[in-house]
Amino acid sequence: MKSIIILFLINLIVVIVKCREQSVLTWMGLERTNETINSDLEQILSLTQILDSVAFERFNLGANSTLIVNNFTDVQYPLQTAGLKTLPMVSTCCPFGRPEVIEYARQLINNPQPFIDSAIQHAIDEGFDGWNIDIEPVGGDERDSIGYANFIDSFAKQLHQYNKTLTVCAATWTPFWNLSLLAQTSVDKIYTMSTYAGTFQGFQSALQFAIQSIPLNKLAVGVMTVDENNQPFSTEELTQRFQLIINNNIKSLGIWSSPIPLNWLPFLKQFVSS
Ligand SMILES: *[C@@H]1O[C@H](CO)[C@@H](O)[C@H](O)[C@H]1NC(C)=O
Ligand SMILES: *[C@@H]1O[C@H](CO)[C@@H](O)[C@H](O)[C@H]1NC(C)=O
Ligand SMILES: *[C@@H]1O[C@H](CO)[C@@H](O)[C@H](O)[C@H]1NC(C)=O
Ligand SMILES: *[C@@H]1O[C@H](CO)[C@@H](O)[C@H](O)[C@H]1NC(C)=O
Ligand SMILES: *[C@@H]1O[C@H](CO)[C@@H](O)[C@H](O)[C@H]1NC(C)=O
């Protein structure tokens, strides 16, 4: 009888853990952002009660629908072993604003399959749980936003056939992204970057727009660890922002980027149990 009760309790805990609605992802910039990779990893591995997913710089979008391996430190194994969901990034850095990025993006939109096939193969070979696409061109237009949403939809549907997830980063500072169109695709989550805003007012209005454009089950709010002057947020500022996040029933957060400042931890704990 006792062991049946214990078994029941273990199952209940498993169900509760699995059913947690809230998700917190952290990004690792690795060599690209000059991280101290070992200590960031150590922090992430110590926070598995709070974090469930990690996205990390590993790939870039190349010309002609290609995926480029950046050869930064490979963090897949320690993250996966700790039970974290691994979502490698596809970036278009560096520097930001390179004119070829919109060309690469249009080549991808017009001929997505080579990229998608390569991404699926990497996910299978390296054991990723999915992808985090962060294509940030300058000079796109509304026509591109339709093509980009079609690409994201097709990529998501194909990844789902392999039980892999697709997440995409988007903002409002270029018409290349249309949040409403992206929200109508099969993508699993949209991480908003407009919500990186340094001022509270900027954060508030970006969050409002994101909520109007993206259903809560797909909306992941991007938050940055520093303000517009590269200064960490005070506990008062964090109180204000997390209050808004929790009041609006936000279910997913993405933190740009590790390491996570220590004064965030009580707020994140509160968020995951909200
Ligand atoms: C990276 O960090 C090292 C050591 O702290 C420093 O010397 C270097 O200037 C940094 N590079 C960049 C690009 O920030
Ligand atoms: C992309 O394809 C075009 C047309 O086939 C070719 O001219 C160009 O060299 C290719 N670019 C790269 C970087 O492979
Ligand atoms: C990464 O390493 C591979 C194998 O050495 C090389 O072919 C590739 O060009 C490298 N990628 C970058 C972005 O340097
Ligand atoms: C995906 O998951 C489902 C349900 O667990 C399973 O039946 C299916 O075989 C999996 N497909 C692949 C490609 O792993
Ligand atoms: C996004 O697309 C919808 C539907 O085509 C359109 O009505 C809306 O104006 C677009 N939003 C932006 C910000 O361009």
From TrEMBL:
Q: Which SUPFAM superfamilies match?
A: (Trans)glycosidases
Q: Where is the signal peptide?
A: 1-19
Cited InterPro entries: GH
What's in the keyword line of the UniProt record?
Signal
The organism's superkingdom is given as Eukaryota
Instruction: Please identify the protein, giving its name as recorded.
Output: GH18 domain-containing protein
This chain's source organism reads Dictyostelium discoideum (Social amoeba)
